[in-house]
Amino acid sequence: MTGPIKGTPPETMKAVVYRGPDDLRLETLPVPEIQPGELLVKVAVCGVCPTDIKKIHYGTVPPPRVFGHETAGTIVKIAGRSRNFRVGERVALHHHVPCLRCHFCWHGAYAQCAAYKRTGITAGFDPAGGGYAQYVRVMPFVLPGVVKIPARNTFLEGAMLEPVNTVLKAVKRLRLLRGDSVLVAGQGPIGLMFTKILSLRGIHVAATDLMGSRLKLALEWGAGKAFRADAKGFARDLRASFPCLDAAVIAVPSAAAVGQSIAIIRDSGQVLLFAHTRKGEPGAVDFASICLEEKDLIGSYSSDFTLQEEVASLVFSRRLDMRKLVTHTFPLEETAAAVALAMNPTEDSLKVVVDQTVTANNGC
């Protein structure tokens, strides 16, 4: 929690700058200057997202940049007048907002909108989220996605709105009725969110993973049954328990899981790809299953700011208690270690965050 901000922001700040593949450096940067209609936010918590991990590890975008987009903090400065925000308010940020006027927006494909592809939050350099810095500049066009954090809730919960939004958006892409059955492949942080949200909507969930600790958690988060995907007789056991799967969510970048899911879901079922975000990785598909059996292979990417109110209700009411998903926190100075752990998870690690309210060497 925080009260009103006193004084003016400093001239410089610490930020973790991406300088190339797997090269993150703690540097000193100018605190961003804000323009009329913009906010300056002091960052409190920023989650480590697989999308940023892939950019950092594979070097898919040119440096330098400051990543981090699952961000919550406190407004410390407003350029001009604002009817909606005040200095001292704690907020959850949202870095992409569509125009709502183009062909893609008319069809609800917001993530394909040219305006949506612009990132509206930066700590310096080309906008890339900026959450791995002490301060970020929030541009006017993304303000409709900014959510105030209630007094009873934490910065951590505010930072989790963005990943929850991406999952809820994906769930809404599935044609599901209460009582249907869904396979969720992968029970990392994203898979567990799918498991919980689907179960809250009255869906029977079959969870799979390669880690026993995550399978146990899946049962606690609402799965009806959990299966080791590498166990002998896995497919047989899954079919015995869930003979009529209506859909499958692939929350792990596994081509084998995609093919297996297409084969195992019922006719007219859906397979939703969520983790296959790296281009240039082709996979085999049984086209007859798509055509004759009318199975759908669909994708879902990024978030939908029109769901922010529903997401905020889900998280801030703690029906989806995101505090239980966070296992490791690191200070800003150890962001590279946070990214490394999220990229190479252990049996006891789930959601990893950079928390600027903790000090160095007091993270995980």
Please describe the topology of this protein.
Layout: E1 12-20, E2 23-30, E3 39-47, H1 50-58, E4 70-78, E5 90-92, H2 103-106, E6 121-122, E7 135-138, E8 147-148, H3 155-159, H4 161-173, E9 181-185, H5 189-200, E10 204-209, H6 212-220, E11 225-228, H7 234-241, E12 247-250, H8 255-264, E13 270-273, H9 287-291, E14 296-299, H10 308-316, E15 326-330, H11 335-343, E16 351-355
Parallel strand pairs: 9-10, 9-12, 10-11, 12-13, 13-14, 15-16
Antiparallel strand pairs: 1-2, 3-4, 3-7, 3-16, 4-5, 5-8, 6-7
Task: Write structural notes for this entry.
The mean pLDDT is about 95. It is globular and about 65 Å long. The protein has two domains: about 10-160 and about 320-355, Alpha-Beta Complex (Quinone Oxidoreductase, Chain A, domain 1), CATH 3.90.180; about 175-300, Rossmann fold (3-Layer(aba) Sandwich), CATH 3.40.50. It is built from eleven helices and 16 strands. Helix 4 (about 160-175) packs across helix 5 (about 190-200). The strands form three sheets. Strands 3, 4, 5, 6, 7, 8, 15 and 16 form an eight-stranded mixed beta sheet that branches. The chain has a six-stranded parallel beta sheet with strand order 11-10-9-12-13-14, with helices on both faces. A two-stranded antiparallel ribbon has the order 1-2. The protein has helices spanning about 50-60, 105, 155-160, 160-175, 190-200, 210-220, 235-240, 255-265, 285-290, 310-315, 335-345; strands spanning about 10-20, 25-30, 40-45, 70-80, 90, 120, 135-140, 145-150, 180-185, 205-210, 225-230, 245-250, 270-275, 295-300, 325-330, 350-355. By secondary structure, the chain is of the alpha/beta class.
